[in-house]
Structures are given as C-alpha cells and as structure tokens.
Model the fold of this input.
Amino acid sequence: MNASHPVDPQDRPARLTVGVVGAGRVGPALAAALQLAGHRPVAVSGVSDASVRRAATLLPDVPVVPPAQVLERAELVLLTVPDDALPGLVEGLAETGAVRPGQLLVHTSGRYGAAVLDPARRVGALPLALHPAMTFTGTAVDVQRLAGCSFGVTAPEELRLAAEALVIEMGGEPEWIEEEARPLYHAALALGANHLVTLVAQSMELLRKAGVAAPDRMLGPLLGAALDNALRSGDAALTGPVARGDAGTVAAHVAELRKHAPQTVAGYLAMARSTADRALAHGLLKPELAEDLLGVLAEGGDR
Done:
C-alpha cells in the first residue's frame, strides 16, 4: 500500500491483513474470527506473559512485535487496549507516523465512539468503533460466542456499511450507536452485565454460608428463568418480597445480612429501593404496602 495515496475503502481488496495492538482477551478472539472469514492475521503486540500466551493460542504462528510494526504490516488494525489507554495510544501512533492513509483502525471500547480516533483520521486512517457486547474469557470459546453477538457500531457515515460488514463477517449483529450516545450505551451494558456478576457472586457466597453445597446448581435454573422473564417482559417480571411489599421479610433480610455479610447491606438496600420504585411505577407494588417497605429500607440505611 502506498502511503502517499489514500485508499478508497471501496477499492480495498476483500481480504485484509489484520494486526492486533493489545493482546488482551478481546483482540486475539476478534482476529481469530476475522481469520475464519478469510482475513489474514499478520502481527500482534502484547507485553505480559499472559498476553503472549493468549496470542500464541488463538493466533498460532502470528509474530508478536511492537505496536508500530503491527501497523506497518496490517491493513486492518484492532486497537484492543483498556479504555483509559486508548486516547494516548491513538495520539502516539499518529504523531510518530505509524498510521498510514487508507488504513482501517478499529477500536473495541464501549465507552468511545469514532471521535477518539480523530488524530489518526487526520492523517488518513479510516476510523471504526466496534464494541462486542459480550464478556470475554481469553480462550477459543470466545470465538464461538461471537455468533449472534451484538456489536455497538459507530463510524463516519461513509464507513458505516464497511463497519457493519466486518461485524457480520465475525458472526456478530451490528447495532448502530450514535457518537453522542456511546457513554450511555456503555453505562447500560455495565449496569446489566458487570453488576450482575457481583450480585451472583455475592448470592453464591451467602448460600454457602447458609449451608448450600452447590450454590451454582441452585442458582442456575432460578437466575436463568429470571433473566429470560426480564428480557421478555421487563418490569412485569418483577417478583419477590420487595415487589409484593413484604416489609417484614425485607427487614429480616437486612438483619441477617448485617450479621453474616455486612459488606452486602448497602448493595441490597440500593437495589431494593430501585426495585420498589419500579414496582410502584408499574402498579405491581400496592401504595398502601409501599410505605412500610420504604420505611424499612430507610431505617436499614441509617444504622
């Protein structure tokens, strides 16, 4: 590719050489998915021993080189670094001349849209923000899980079709997110997925303390049904003592949590208040029962 002549994306060959900057859990999996679609991974950068091992497992025989060499070798570069490191990385690559005109630069941050790639765009790069709405393990199972996975897609309008095509090639489903909506989009995913892990882990710990030998086996069917109901019916799926207005049961919960797991009380109260508000708004919690319940929740937070 001639660095002095920008490449029109429509003139780009169908199969691309692919590089990965940041061999965390996401980058190698996406590169492996692109390889299955016929693209050719040619270089990956990684610092830690874990990154190098991950790259060797998911992208065997692909050389591990410094970031600048990744950009030198690849037509499509995946920037899969932590959110806070992304702006500095992009600026540094652009300032040092590592970015070539016509090069596709793809970041996978949920927080940022395409604007974070503006320093590279000013020197001719083609910026795409493709965020897979999935948690990654850093193993080959991630490549399989990409099938049907939604990707938050943000790009300049003229690159929208190219961005969506790449997602489809990886087995995903593109979902267009406007630039200004990216922070809200990411907050919504974090609220649902990241906090869910915390809640499930706390629930398993409490069940173990209660003498349950296999809390995962007990929770699996319950949480699976709750998730399915919530996705199908939204707030109408609310059940349990808060939605019913069982103030006495909630008070007993708070007392037990203070005794056995005081670190969980604040989270329980916050979620119970939010659940009560939503149950009231949707007519599930009777107003005459809500007063006692909200009183219990207020007292629980004052102790």
Summary: The radius of gyration is 24 Å.
